[in-house]
Amino acid sequence: xxxxxxxxxxxxxxxxxxxxxxxxxxxxxxxxxxxxxxxxxxxxxxxxxxxxxxxxxxxxxxxxxxxxxxxxxxxxxxx
Length: 79
Prior knowledge:
Radius of gyration: 31 Å
């Protein structure tokens, strides 16, 4: 194995090591943020489906009320 050339020793080596450490840290941070965004996207899709289902249920209840039918929450069960 050949000795390390003089140009690869000294303060520049320390700077290069620090840059590599920062790059590694930033890549890990990007990967973590990407995972968080993917999880949030899944949650957002689920919430959109639930909202759509709630709106559909409200529209069905409103349609039932406009047809003269009693809405299920208008009269207590003992009537």
